[in-house]
Amino acid sequence: MKRIVPIILVLVVAGVAAWYFLLGGNASTSSDVLGGSGTIETDQVAISAQTSGRIVEAPTEDGVPIAKGDVLFKLDAALLKLQVQQAEAGVTAAEAAYRQAKDDKKTDAEIASAKAQLDQAKVAVEMAKVQLGYATIGSPIDGVLTNVVLKAGENAVPGSTLAIVSNPASLTVTIYVPENRIGEVTVGQAGDLVTDSTSKTYHAEVIFIGSQAEYTPASIETKDQRVKLVYQVRLRITDADSALKPGMPADVTLK
């Protein structure tokens, strides 16, 4: 009986040691994986007004596919058209004054002054036409109209956001890499991306690495809770398809 007890103790100790070794090995392997979790995002462009005016035409619904150059908004251009006509009338008057100065053989200084006034009048026409062009607002990119902020009948002012256009063909994901491992990350580095919504593994490429460390965002859970300082790393998904949507959580493993 006395011999059996030591044998049992030896077996127990050996089992605990083996379990500890395996657990330690798995933890080490897990910590060697470089990557993180984030949310899929898409490039967005804010469509804004560059002149004041009442909106006379506007999209009526979100989620509409649009192409670059498609007209999204039109502002009341009545006053702007009058300003163009007024500027053109100024050119006509300045041209007549310039011709008269030459016909009357005015002094060189007087002729030069008339010519300068004509040049200024022509510039005024171009400026008025530019302002008139601001009354028609188009999309600068191909994409999807994701948020119409102002509608027909409302007033737009310079800098005010009229709508948001998203580019679903350009999807990115941002992860946070611990400070002690950021040296392993380079722009152009490849990575694999997976989501809960599909079994497919997508490919991604690092396009941005933060230049300053920051504290781990509250929304990000890190594997090592002792790591407080992290760097932002943004990747572009290079083979995105319709299964990936903005807002989806994703896991990234850097290669």
Outline the biggest β-sheet: 6 strands, antiparallel, barrel
The unreliable regions are 4-30
User: Strand arrangement, largest sheet?
Assistant: 1-8-12-10-9-13
Query: What is the CA-atom radius of gyration, in angstroms?
Result: 33 Å
Structural class: alpha+beta
CATH topology of the domain at 35-42 and 170-254: Elongation Factor Tu (Ef-tu), domain 3
- Average per-residue pLDDT, rounded, comes to 85
Q: How does CATH name the architecture of the domain at 35-42 and 170-254?
A: Beta Barrel
In short:
This protein is of the alpha+beta class.
Task: Describe this entry's structure for a reader.
This protein is elongated. It has 3 helices and 13 strands; from the N terminus they run H-E-E-E-E-H-H-E-E-E-E-E-E-E-E-E. It is of the alpha+beta class and 255 residues long. 19% of the residues are buried. A hairpin with a 2-residue loop joins strand 9 and strand 10. Among the domains are: 35-42 and 170-254, Elongation Factor Tu (Ef-tu), domain 3; 77-134, Helix Hairpins (Orthogonal Bundle). Helix content is 32%, strand content 36%. The chain has a 6-stranded antiparallel beta barrel with strand order 1-8-12-10-9-13. A 4-stranded antiparallel beta sheet has the order 5-4-2-7, with no helix packed on it.
Topology of helices and strands:
Blueprint: H1 4-32, E1 35-48, E2 53-57, E3 64-66, E4 71-75, H2 78-103, H3 108-133, E5 136-138, E6 143-148, E7 155-156, E8 161-178, E9 190-195, E10 198-209, E11 214-215, E12 229-237, E13 249-254
